[in-house]
User: What shape does this take?
Amino acid sequence: MRIRPIHHTFGPHVDWRYLWKATALSYAPWRYVAGTACNELKQELKKVLPGEPALFTSGRQALFAVLRALDVRPGHEVIVQGYTCVVVPNAIHASGAVPVFADIDRDTLNLTKESVEACITQRTKAVICQHTFGIPAPVKELRPLCDKHGIVLIEDMAHVIPDHSGPETIGKYGDFLLLSFGRDKAISGIEGGAVMSRDPAMARKIAGMEQAAIRRQWWEVARLLEYPARMYAIVRPLSSTDLLRPVLWAMRQLRLIAPVLTAEEKEGSMSPLLYKLPNACAALALGELRRLETINNRRRRITDFFLRYGKEHGWPMPQGIVPGFPLQKFPLFVKDAQRKRAILRKENIHLNDGWTNCVVCPETVNMDIMDYHWGKDPAAEAACEQILSLPTHPTMTVFQAERLARRMDELIKK
Assistant: This one.
């Protein structure tokens, strides 16, 4: 009997409902680029989060729009954390500014007030506060610090969107709230991103950029809409076979799957062009946002199980994780993390999520041009070498979580 894969990246949001909607959209090419879904998504976002929304094709583009609205330019600095995705410093570089990396708290994998304060200079324009994997960052403490120095606070909420059950502090203190609708984010439109702006003047500036943004080509949207079916019908069934890697390679070479990161982005480059969120992607993200509480509750259930099991068995994990968090993934600190991932891959458990062995992720990034100097953020460097994360996405089942927990416990205690 074929065992379903345990994974981070094989369409983590793609269940029958998502597949059905994407397939239906694929047969309506007149809805690919333009339609009503973008406005509907904006209205739904305003019910969940404060501020005025603007939509783009990715979270990195939303961040770039914010930096442009703030008139960030050469000579300015933007504080980010060590242990982040390459698209964040790329957007800062594209604006002309320099990213300044602040160290993290090992128990939250997030910035600390002290590490941010140590990085502030007269050139500091903004702080980007990332809620890593859905663990709340200290935005309440950073708010008065930013006010004191006249610095803008940007909350990066790619990994978590709070619902009625919280987390309460997320989305309450930032001047701007960044969202991503990528394939493995809090909610997914296959691609997409948004920014919520509290300041009306900034909101108008960003809305002007959104209005002037370029529309995606219909064939690009068509390729995106094929992603759920290819994950569901091809990649997952092949996940336990030797065909998986060559098939994925062939799909990328034939451009049947759009890359999450381009080769240029891994080299530190980002285009200054902004693109509108396609209507079809907005429709998918809208469907997920309307099911936010259901999605978050599934994440809470899996997170709480791993947390309880881990505490009972003495797993090394960030102590900032508490019951009720809808984590995007559940991080552990383990020795020989790479070797353990290799062992598990042979058992159809695929835990390479791109957030391993790297202060700026993924590890294939060209660090020579990231403005990060090894040794600057020791806590981030130590954590990234030991991180091994467990899936908590909406298509992960409790049965799979139990199976993974038992196997992880065996490997940790070896």
In short: The chain has a mean pLDDT of 96.
